[in-house]
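Hey team,

Filing this mostly as a record. A colleague (T.K.) asked me to run one chain through the structure pipeline before their review meeting, and I want the input and output archived in the tracker in case anyone asks later how it was produced. No errors, nothing strange. Just documentation.

Input sequence:
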Amino acid sequence: MHELSLAENILEIVEAERAGRRFSRVHVIRLRAGALSGIDPEALRLAMESVCEGTCAAEAAVEIDAEPRIVTCRRCGATMPGDVGPAACASCGSIDLELAGSSGLDIVSLEVD
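Output structure:
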């Protein structure tokens, strides 16, 4: 479960921000998970609850915006949702498809006081 190590890294960044900006509590942690990141948002939320216990982020809500996967046909250029992984292009029938998206995880914002 790589979500636990991601949660630990996120908390390290939050703690570094706290030291620099001198806030006492985190109310909301907003994250963006790339379409190709392989992150399970619910597993990450649970990992964040675990690692944040007893810290300035213990009561923080964790909001994760998971970017949608997009499939592009290399033959005709049509795009379609990649959630179900189409076997062929809906427009031209080609199987020459490319899955696009980011593989990263970003901290978008922190609500603090």
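Quick notes for T.K.: The chain has one domain: 2-112. The chain has a mean pLDDT of 94.
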